[in-house]
What does this fold into?
Amino acid sequence: MRIAVYGCGGVGAYFGGRLAQIGQDVTFIARHENLAALRSKGLKVGSIAGDFVIDQVKVTSNPADVGIVDYVLCCVKAWQVTAAARAMLPMVGPETLIVPLQNGVEAPEQIASIIDPANVIGGLCAIVAFQSSPGHIKHSGGNPLIRFGHLDNRPDSRINALSEVFNHCIGVKSSIPEHVAVAMWQKFMLITPWSGLGAVSRAPLGVLLEQPETRSLLVEATDEIYRLGHARGIPMPDDSIARTMATLEGIPANSTTTMQRDLVRGRPSELDALNGAVVRLAYEVGLDMPLNRFIVYGLRSLELRARGALHFNRRSTQR
It folds into this structure.
């Protein structure tokens, strides 16, 4: 099968690299220094599941060079999805499946507003990984998991085939959820409170869980998303909050999220796709999410500064 990986950060490079490691025909879409490094040095992945190197990487910055593929793994950050969908059009044929692996729950709808919805499925992944330098990825936590399926949960041999291939990869577990929207919202419940409170506090996950005050806030923010899911017709299991907290307990204590790291470094983040989406989606059904609203309002100035829409010094003036 021919697979394109659009976006070569921690998620795209890890999962795409594992596919290339077992001989699948994988082409990466990359840019700037990452593109140059992948072309000249290959892909290096340091992983708790086993380090590996792909010496010869198929990589380009132009999707038109790739042609029609069987699958596109959309691995850009959530705020880049719309632009990525437009750019990947030359790789999409009638039978191509696009697998969005963003944080948040809106990517399939965003892609389907540009590309035929018949080509778009739901998806999610779980991994603690990041780009340590161009062409070099570090997988530092979590047992890499990838799940995907049609949003109406109908069977599809193409989905079965991709899941089977992933399950042949070292350090990857794949499955097809019985209800993919529920699976996406369960991840949304996990990553969104952690991202928001981590960014507000600038503390790693272990500190958030150990301190009674921040632990209580994690539970409260998770409960808001649980109630929002039900209000929007997502049949969330009754034990979703307890399961979310148990999953967080199993993640390495020093872990941080992409959104948290981006805001600390002054980069555009996924704030609008995570806590912002909670507030926005809740408004549509007449709910108020006070804790997630506080997180959004508290971080908005940092987000605007990162996007060049607001200017102020990083260090406050001392008097």
Observations:
- Strands lie at 2-6, 25-29, 43-47, 52-54, 58-60, 71-74, 97-100, 122-133, 136-149, 173-175.
- The radius of gyration is 19 Å.
